[in-house]
Design goal:
The chain is mostly helical and 189 residues long. It has a single domain, classed as Four Helix Bundle (Hemerythrin (Met), subunit A), CATH 1.20.120. It is built from six helices and two strands, in the order H-H-H-H-E-E-H-H. Strands 1-2 form a two-stranded antiparallel ribbon. Strand 1 and strand 2 form a beta hairpin. Helix 3 packs parallel to helix 4 and helix 3 runs antiparallel to helix 5. The chain is flat. The two termini are 20 Å apart.
Length: 189
């Protein structure tokens, strides 16, 4: 039985961030300009507003990540929930800009940086805690994006996980493979 190599916390975290980014992109790819701008109701956010918030958060938190407070004075968080993009292309440009800022800040980190204290709104936390906090934050919003996409597309939505009613077949295929051939965060080949 072979098993995947164990990575360190940073490698594992980056794989998970990339995994959730790809899930969001696969859901968004199924939607039109009009669909990403649609709000389910007045109290909810459209997918475009969720992306605006994610991008704003990433830009604020990860610009000068280790040296300045993560809530930048130039960030206008309130507008992230009010002002949508003109179309899906503009939305995806902001999505990529936010993720690029995140990866540029996190990829060079070393294990020795993990216990460094950084600040968000003048509250200290270790780099480890900050990354875990953002992983949960981003995954929750990407879950909202996926859920809205499923509602918008209905039966035409291409599932990003095990299809409804397909657990037995999925498990049969998985348990029919040699253990440890790939990690769940790796793309299927």
């Amino acid at each position: 039985m072979s098993s995947p190599e164990k990575g360190n916390f940073l490698d594992s975290s980056l794989k998970l961030f990339r995994y959730y980014k790809s899930l969001g992109e696969k859901a968004i790819a199924q939607l039109s300009d009009e669909e990403v701008l649609r709000k389910p109701n007045n109290e909810s956010n459209s997918i475009a507003l969720i992306v605006r918030h994610l991008s704003g958060n990433m830009m604020s938190r990860f610009t000068d990540f280790l040296t300045t407070d993560g809530e930048k004075p130039w960030r206008d968080r309130e507008s992230e929930f009010d002002v949508a993009y003109s179309d899906k292309t503009a939305m995806m440009a902001a999505w990529e800009k936010g993720w690029a800022c995140f990866f540029e800040a996190v990829e060079p980190l070393k294990e020795s940086d993990l216990q460094t204290i950084i600040y968000v709104r003048n509250e200290g936390q270790t780099v480890t805690d900050a990354l875990l906090r953002q992983l949960a934050h981003y995954a929750s919003h990407i879950g909202q994006i996926i859920y809205q996409a499923k509602i918008l597309k209905g039966e035409s939505f291409t599932t990003l996980s095990i299809p409804k009613g397909g657990s037995a077949e999925f498990n049969k295929g998985k348990f029919g493979q040699e253990m440890g051939q790939r990690l769940f965060t790796e793309e299927k080949k």
